[in-house]
Structure formats: C-alpha cells, structure tokens
Amino acid sequence: MASIKPSAHLADVRYEIRGALTRRSRELEAAGLPIIKLNIGNPGRYGFDTPAHLREAIARHLHDSEAYGHEQGLEEAREAIAAQQRHRGAHGVEVERVFIGNGVSELIDLSLRALLQPGDEVLLPSPDYPLWSAATILNDGKPRYYRCLAENGHLPDPDEIEALITPRTRALVLINPNNPTGAVYPRELLERIVAVAARHRLLLLSDEIYDEILYDGVPFQPLAAVAGDLPCVSFGGLSKVHRACGYRVGWMSLSGDPSRTTDYRDALQLLAALRLCANVTAQWAVRPALQSAPTIHALTTAGGRLHEARREVLDGVAASEFLDIVSPSGALYAFPRVRSDRLADFDDNAFALRLLEEESVLVVPGSSFNVPHSRHLRLTLLPPPEQIREVFVRIERVLVGMAAAQKPRAAIA
Predict the structure, then answer these.
(1) Which Pfam families does this entry report, sorted A to Z (predicted)?
(2) Whole-structure pTM value
C-alpha cells in the first residue's frame, strides 16, 4: 500500500529545538550517557519552581475547573491581564479584547489564522522563534525576514524593515525581549518601527513572553504603549517569568483603536470558540501571578541564579579563542558566534552534532532560527552556573579540534 503523504506545508516548517539533535540526545541517554541539555527554555526541567501561591490558587479552584470555560478565558484572569496592559500604557484594552490560550504557541497560530489570506506576507525577525515562521506558513502566509545582526546588537533596522514591505504585507512581528538573542529593544527603536507600521497600515504582533526577565537594569518597553491607537496584539504568559511552562497558560491582548479591529476581534473569538476553551484549571493562577510582587527579580539580579549563569556564559566566551557574543540583556538565552577569522569553514549543524556526540552537550544551531549561513549557537541560561562553566570547556575542545583539522587544508591551498 502507498504510504500516507503529509501536508506539503510542512516541507518548509522546522523546529530544531525539539528536532533531530534532540532525538539523537535521547538515544545517547538511553545508552547510558548523561547529556547536558542547553536546548530548551523549560525552567521546571532545571530545578526552578513555580511560585507556591500560584499552585495554591489552582488547588483552591479544582472543583471550579471541571466544566468548559468561556472561549476567551476566565473573566477574572482576563480582567487581571487587561489591568496590567492598561497600567503599562496600552490603549483600548478591555476584557473582551483579551484571549487566553494553551500557551502563547496556540495564540500565535490563532492570531495569524484570523488575519491571513493565501499569499499574504508577515515580516519576521531573523533570527526568529521558529514557531512564528511555522505558523505563518501553515496559515498560507509567506514569511519575509528582516535581519537582526550581531553587528547591530541584534537590533533590527527600521529602514530595512520598510524596504521589505509589499502590497501583500499584513503584519509585523517583534520578539522583545528576544528569543534567541536576548536583545531588548529601546523605546526609540520601537517608535521608529511603529511609525513604519502606521505608514503601511500593518498589524503589530509583539511577543513579550520574557517581559520581566531583564539583566543589569535594562528597562522593558511594552510595544502597545508606543503603538497608541495603532492596532497591536501583545502576547504574554505564565511559562517563563513565572516558571510554569507545564500550565500552558498564555494570553494575547488587542490594543489600539477598537473601531479598526472589530472584525479581527470577532474572528479571533470564533477561532477561540472552535477549540472550545483553554485549560481552565491553570487559569486560576493568572490573577495571583499578575497582582503579586514579582518573583523573577531574585533570579535575574546580581547573585541570582540566572544572572550568574549569564555571567558564566560571558566569561566562557571571553576566555575562548573562537567565540564572540552580544551580551544578552533579557530572556533566558545567549547566542554566541564562532569567529570567521578563527575558524573559516564552520557548519553550525555539524558542530552541534559533534558537540553532542563527543562531549555530551546539546545546543541548538543558529540556523534553526531562520538565519542563513549561521555561525551562531543558542544556549539556555537555565542550567546551574557551574554546569555552564563546564559546557564552555567542552565547546572549546571541539572548536580546537575543528580548527586543527582545517589547518592542513589551508596550508595546501
């Protein structure tokens, strides 16, 4: 019998964060090799606990969680989200313009499905979080990438963004603080980007899931406050700041002039209703999460575990003969680069596989984030600092070996 053929859409979809390297890692673990994993931003797998008051809120409401909820989410949770957004300066955010989903991942898909016609274009950062590219493609859209180069601090160039706009461009996506680079966008840059969106009547989509994970006093500027009456969808959730990935609670809030987004809001509600509702049980944690004192700052300030893990990354790069890096200002990742003057021929996928096979370290190649010809690696900051220190010893060993293998070829040439 003929084999079942998958959708042609999937030919251009990638998610190497949980891809072939991860599968190979599982095989090595099954053979008894301990693997140091720096591939995924999953705090609970690295010993980070969800704050106790969020667990307690869920426990108190277990009996209230046994029926389907409102398709947009629990009203008390949406009220807390709307209040947070208004406090941050967002315009026009009310309860009926907030949607709760099974993680931000589901809401990214819904936001694009409600928007795109076949062939419509979405402006995405390169590097991007690959789910944005996947959701665009799977909803019949076309990704167009604006560069966020290390030479520019991994910040985008608004003029380059504007040059990519065509009559089919519908939306402009920002990821701030950024995954995978750790860049945090200053207000002046966001103002220029908003001006571009306003001139071309684009919908702004701002992925802000890492909004409170910041280092060295760098401020976070929510995009909705800068956008004003311009339509903007802002995404947040419990998974990162509140270390509750398994709860699968994300949200999106629609800000700006309501008269310009009525039809779009109604389309979002229809799609939300078609999947009935998000996980009810974990939504009871939203209000206490947003109305209590933040718990993440103890981890990101000097002496905190994330701060010290980041310091080990920066020290490891500084001590390396081969690496450089733009210091991450936010989020849970670092994006070091292999220098071309130290290792001319470099394949990030081949390196990542060799690092896994020879040194039992799992990282994500930069090309997995839609970066052409990448010399980057993404590392999560979640492992203990002393483990990250050891990782850089192992990375250097592999790079030294690769450099030694290239020298004879260079001499012959």
Answers:
(1) Aminotran_1_2
(2) 0.93
